[in-house]
Design goal:
The complex is a heterodimer. Chain A is built from 13 helices and three strands, in the order E-H-E-E-H-H-H-H-H-H-H-H-H-H-H-H. Chain A is an all-alpha fold. Chain A has a two-stranded antiparallel sheet. Chain A starts with a strand and ends in a 6-residue tail after the last helix. Chain B starts with 9 loop residues before the first strand and ends with a helix. The chains are: A mainly alpha, B alpha+beta. Strand 1 of chain A pairs antiparallel with strand 1 of chain B.
Chain lengths: 294, 515
């Protein structure tokens, strides 16, 4: 039978055509170009010249900062993703109820997610300032020693992770939407069976939320691998490259050293890493994600 | 159901065809030029075609008095202008200012995209001392002030140049200038300077040197790259620590002697590592200690020689004496940035290494702070140590090779970097020196700060440090090296040697033509 579509469908495709153009022009095109440039020496202002695998060879065998940036980024991903998901989940549970002032609370928690990251970074820079910052000032009132988060090799990454957790709003809202989609009857049935609040959480809420958890997990991992703005604005990768995250390293090669070919090779590696992580998560997802329990 | 609302069956192929057609149409529309494609940018207008002396330029024949010069509207008129003699060469208007003549072309037309980072409190200054007076002289030139912050300026300009739409006047410095020049994306100005009788000797030698690449001038300086490192001291805090505010430290040893009394007063002496963009503290103190970072041809790294090692060791011990670890001494903010007035105005640090712009910024943003200024301290234990302030960067105005209206751009550059109004008044209002030597004879400038002698001494001690297009990578290594010993990952000598070897390899590869 011939597959037929309606006039509405044609119009639909027509309307999304600008988006398709945008995708081809501003996303797919650059992606293809990056793959090509990764095999070239490309100083931006003059034509790229083919160098084969030289960029990859140098990255993997002769670039200690590549490994440093991998190490920093892995630290960030491993610590930030679980903390961020947990915080978003807990906040979603807390605000998924009808109590007085809940709208204000939801807005307050969500607000940092819509504030430009540059503005947030500048505010945090002032808060964390070792001499006049509010954090150290109030800390000193209760006898805490002044701590310079931004110039301490040990503290800079935890500080950036901590700051990033304030942008928990989006994940929280997605969790909340998932929570609201769980049928009430399941909780009623569990309550009739004598399940405690904790048991309802573990045996009803969490399993029913696993598709949302998977989505948030994948998005969070991708975002965490791409951490850039806070490190760039707060310290530029300092101190002693302790905040030199991977994308910041790509940026340095692209726009400080003007080695677009090398930066492209770094980008391809990041793409592959994220692809592998996502593929692994997806392939194992049917072991723990429960899509069809309702 | 109405006829028009009825669904018309279509195959998937039809749909895809329609979608593709629309996409291709939109792509074509997006890629098509909005106006007919411009021809290759015209060569700068032949000066001979310019009509001599536009009305504004032909005006008074006598130099304005200093009081007049302070008023932008009046001062806008060239100090003295007369139709150029038609000698067969270029015909322009002779501008007689500051005891020398040069040619200008007030009837040039065009638009200037002035890409710069004279932001915040300097925006109004740019308007008053540059744009308004310039447009009075050049009514046919429109100036678009494209101002932003300094750190991303180079990235933005690079993107514009790569996209084939560069601004015609670019404010660039150091490695950026070498990079653009090396890629042939900015014009050498030597021929234009010769045509319009602008002498290289009007500028401090080191100032012009830091705007040159392979022997050619690629930008004219609008502010000094020198006078970047002076020692500012908070007189109130010195008194609080029991120190004589009339005797600021002159040597490294004087600074060492301050540490304990300052500590007892609950203060910090100095964060010496907060230096300046692209110049590390170690570089600055190595030069103070009679050393150099590399040779004049930029072929041999020299920072690990004894003067550099001694400088590194002194810096580290100064930090440790104050607070054991650098995080206890750091003034805040990104180390590559200069100390902002508000950071020092918090009055926790007695000393602050900063440039001549500090006078203006302290006056406008922290007028309550009582301070003095002196030259950078030297090492009393080393006879070779003397006042020597390295300058590998200095803002310049350059013309993008692929830009439009390059003749207008050149007139703007001449005005802002050579004329009395443009080159002198802009910096005079900031109490900072001009790269144009004659500007600095101004009584207003000398009377603007009691520390003008310090500024002049600093300028005289300025050492031009040549840089290569790969300077950003070298600078990155310099910071890594400093981090290595500052955070005590390696002893000073070991860090200097290791990174000297890495930098040497970069230089060798560059000179061998490898990227």
């Amino acid at each position: 039978m011939a597959r037929l579509v309606s006039r509405e469908t044609v119009w639909g495709y027509g309307f999304i055509a600008p988006w398709i153009v945008g995708l081809l022009l501003f996303t797919a095109g650059p992606i293809v170009a990056v793959f090509y440039w990764s095999f070239t020496d490309y100083p931006i202002l003059s034509a790229p010249t083919w160098v084969g695998l030289k960029n990859y060879e140098k990255i993997l065998t002769g670039d200690p900062l590549f490994w440093r940036s991998i190490q920093n980024t892995a630290y960030y991903v491993l610590l930030r993703v679980p903390l961020h998901l947990l915080l978003a989940f807990v906040l979603a549970l807390l605000i998924n109820r009808s109590i007085r002032g809940i709208s204000f609370l939801r807005t307050a928690i969500y607000l940092p997610s819509v504030v430009p990251i540059v503005a947030l970074a500048v505010i945090w820079r002032l808060l964390l300032d070792p001499r006049g910052g509010y954090l150290n000032y109030y800390g000193s009132l209760i006898g805490l020693p002044a701590t310079n988060f931004l110039t301490s090799e040990a503290l800079i990454k935890p500080a950036i992770i901590g700051i990033s957790l304030f942008q928990v709003g989006v994940a929280m809202v997605i969790f909340m939407a998932g929570l609201q989609a769980i049928p009430e009857q399941l909780y009623e049935a569990a309550a009739i069976d004598g399940a405690s609040a904790w048991q309802r959480l573990v045996n009803v809420t969490v399993p029913m939320l696993t598709p949302v958890i998977l989505y948030n997990l994948i998005v969070d991992i991708i975002n965490s691998f791409q951490v850039f703005a806070y490190a760039f604005i707060l310290t530029g990768g300092a101190p002693a490259n302790a905040a030199l995250f991977y994308v910041l390293y790509i940026y340095k090669h692209a726009f400080e050293f003007f080695q677009m070919g090398y930066a492209s090779a770094l980008s391809v590696i990041l793409f592959l890493v994220i692809l592998v992580f996502t593929a692994i998560l997806m392939s194992f997802s049917d072991r723990w994600v429960q899509y069809d329990r309702i | 159901m109405d006829e028009t609302q009825r669904s018309i069956p279509r195959s998937r192929r039809d749909v895809l065809r329609t979608g593709l057609l629309l996409s291709v149409t939109a792509l074509a529309a997006a890629c098509a030029p909005s106006t007919p494609a411009p021809a290759k940018p015209a060569e700068p207008a032949k000066p001979a075609e310019s009509k001599p002396a536009a009305p504004a330029a032909a005006a008074p024949a006598t130099a304005p008095k200093p009081a007049e010069a302070a008023k932008p509207a009046e001062a806008a008129k060239p100090a003295a202008a007369a139709p150029a003699a038609k000698t067969g060469g270029p015909t322009g208007t002779v501008i007689k200012e500051l005891g020398r003549d040069y040619l200008a072309y007030p009837d040039v037309k065009g638009t200037i995209q002035f890409s710069n980072c004279w932001a915040a409190s300097r925006v109004q200054l740019v308007e008053d001392t540059w744009i308004k007076p310039f447009q009075q002289i050049y009514p046919g030139i429109k100036v678009e002030n494209d101002v932003g912050n300094c750190p991303p300026l180079l990235e933005k300009q690079t993107t514009q140049v790569a996209a084939g739409a560069p601004p015609n006047v670019m404010m660039i410095r150091g490695g950026g200038l070498a990079f653009f020049a090396d890629q042939k994306k900015i014009d050498a100005l030597d021929d234009l300077m010769a045509r319009d009788k602008i002498e290289k000797s009007w500028y401090y030698e080191t100032e012009l040197k830091t705007r040159m690449h392979q022997g050619k001038v690629y930008g004219l300086p609008n502010v000094t790259g020198g006078a970047n490192f002076m020692l500012f001291y908070n007189t109130k805090l010195m008194e609080k620590a029991g120190l004589d505010p009339n005797k600021p430290p002159k040597t490294w040893q004087d600074v060492d002697a301050m540490v304990e009394p300052v500590k007892k007063a609950g203060l910090l002496t100095w964060d010496p590592f907060k230096a300046n963009a692209s110049q590390t503290a170690h570089e600055i103190f190595t030069y103070q200690n009679g050393g150099r970072y590399w040779d004049d041809e930029v072929k041999k790294i020299l920072w690990n020689e004894p003067a550099g090692v001694e400088a590194g060791e002194w810096l580290l011990q100064l930090v440790k004496a104050q607070g054991d670890k650098y995080e206890n001494v750091n003034i805040g903010g990104v180390r590559k940035d200069t100390i902002q007035p508000q950071e020092w105005a918090a009055e926790k640090y007695v000393l602050n290494m900063n440039g001549s712009w500090t006078f203006f910024l302290m006056k406008t943003t922290a007028p309550h702070v009582q301070y003095g200024a002196t030259t950078m301290p030297t090492n009393a234990k080393n006879p070779a140590s003397k006042l020597a302030t390295p300058a590998d960067v200095g803002w310049a105005f350059s013309i993008a090779t692929d830009a439009k209206d390059k003749e207008a751009a050149w007139e703007w550059i001449k005005f802002t970097t050579t004329s009395k109004m443009g080159a002198c008044k802009f910096v005079e209002a900031q109490n900072r020196p001009s790269p144009v030597i004659d500007c600095n004879d101004s009584p207003e400038l000398k009377g603007g700060t009691p520390y003008w002698g310090v500024v002049e001494a600093d300028l005289k001690a300025n050492v031009a440090v040549p840089v290569l297009p790969i300077h950003p990578k070298i600078a990155d290594l310099m910071y890594e090296m400093e981090d290595a010993f500052l955070y005590e990952r390696m002893p000073v000598k070991e860090a200097l040697d290791k990174y000297a070897a890495d930098a040497q390899k970069l230089l060798d590869d560059h000179h061998a033509g490898k990227r």
